[in-house]
Amino acid sequence: MPAQWRIRMGIFSVSHNNTHGDFYYKVTGILSDVQNKITNLGGLGPQVSGVHVKMVGQPIDALYGYVADGYFSSFTEARAHTVVQWGKLQGGDIRYIDQLTVDTDGDGKPDAGDSKMTGDDRVVLGNPIPRYNFSFDIFTSWKGFDFSMFLQGVGKRDGYVSGWLAYPFANASTVLVQHLDRWNEANPNPNAAYPRLSINQHSNNTQASSFWQVSAAYFRLKNIQIGYTLPKEWLGEKNISGLRVYANGNNIFTSSKMPIGMDPESPESVQNSYPLISTYTFGVEVKF
Q1: Which of 30, 78, 256, 274 is most solvent-facing, going by the fewest CB within 10 Å?
Q2: Quick one: DSSP state of residue 10?
Q3: Does 150 reside within a domain?
C-alpha cells in the first residue's frame, strides 16, 4: 500500500470598502490554515532525513531530533555526566535528555533511559508547515492622493537554524555579530544563544536537536506606496492625459524571533541565500 496522508485546509476572507465625500477606502483581510497528517507509510517505519521525519500520525517532514537541556556549566560537570553523548565534552557543550527507552519492570512501558544517546532518543520536535497565514491589504484615496499598504505573516511555524547561521567558520563561512553571544569560560552564560566555540564543528553541538529549533512565526510590512495624481487642468494643452508621482517601499519591516540573516518566508534549504533586502523607489507614471 502506498503512503497516505490527510490534508485539511480552510480560508476566510473579508473585504470592506466605502466612500465619504472625496475619501475612499478599501480593506481586505485573509486568514488561511493548512494541516496535514501522515496516515499510512505502506508498512514502513519512520523515514528520517536530516532534521526531518515522515512518521504515521505526524505532519509531513516534521522536525525530528534530540531534546536539548541547556549547557554543561563546566569541564567538571561535563566529565561527570553519566550519559554517553558525542566527543570529549566540555563546559559550554549542549546537554541532551536521555529519553525513556528501557522497560525495567516488564510492564511494556519504557521507564528508564539507557545512559547513552542513540537514534532512539530522537522525538518529533515541531511542524515546519506554516499555520495561520494572514494578510491585510489597505487602499485609500483622497483628492488625488492615494495610499496603499500590504501586510502579511504567519501565526505559527517551527523553523530550524543550520549551516553558517549556526556554526561560524563552517566550510570557510563568515562569522556574524550574533555569534559573539556564545558560552565561554570568561562568561559562562547559561542563556547564551550559541554553545562554546570550537575549531572544528563539534559533533555533539551539531546534532539535530531542539536547541536549534526556533519560532518561524512572523509579521511583515511587505509594501507601502504613496502617490499623487496631478489635476488634469495642471497639464495644460500638452498631449498628456494623466500624470502620477509616487514613492514605493518593499520589505520595510519584519518582526520575527529568527536569527539575523534567516528569512522566515524561506524554507530551510535556502537559508544560505542572500538576506532579504528593503528597497525604496520613486517614480512617475505618464498617460498619453
Answers
A1: 274
A2: E
A3: no
Instruction: Tell me how far apart the alpha carbons of residues 135 and 218 are, in angstroms, rounded to a whole number.
Output: 12
Averaged confidence pLDDT in the chain: 91
Beta strands per DSSP E along the chain: 4-20, 23-40, 47-49, 52-54, 62-65, 68-71, 94-96, 123-126, 131-142, 145-156, 158-160, 213-215, 218-229, 242-256, 279-287
For residue 87, what are the domain limits?
67-121+168-205
CA–CA dist 45, 55 (Å, integer): 7
pLDDT of residue 269: 47
pTM: 0.85
- The answer to the question of residue 99 being in a domain is yes
Contacts of 106 (CB under 8 A, 6+ apart): none
Residue 106: inside a domain, yes or no? yes
DSSP 60: T
Evaluate whether 40 touches 3 at the Cβ level (below 8 Å).
Answer: yes
Residue 271 pLDDT > 60: no
Q: Which ranges constitute the DSSP H helices of the chain?
A: 75-80
Q: How would residue 116 be classed by pLDDT, with cut points 50, 70 and 90?
A: very high
Q: How far apart are CA 95 and CA 81, in angstroms?
A: 9
For residue 253, tell me if it sits in a domain. Answer: no
Percentages helix, strand, coil for the chain (3-state, rounded to 5) are: 10, 45, 45
Print the SS3 string covering 159-172: EECCHHHCCCCHHH
Q: Are strands 242-256 and 279-287 parallel, antiparallel or unpaired?
A: antiparallel
Residue 268 confidence class, pLDDT cut points 50, 70, 90: low
Among the listed residues 170, 189, 168, 191, the one whose alpha carbon sits nearest the alpha carbon of residue 179: 168
The CA dihedral of 51, 56, 59, 62, to the nearest 10 degrees, is -10
Which pairing describes strands 145-156 and 47-49: parallel, antiparallel, or unpaired? unpaired
Label residue 143 exposed, middle or buried (CB < 10 Å: 0-12, 13-18, 19+). Answer: exposed
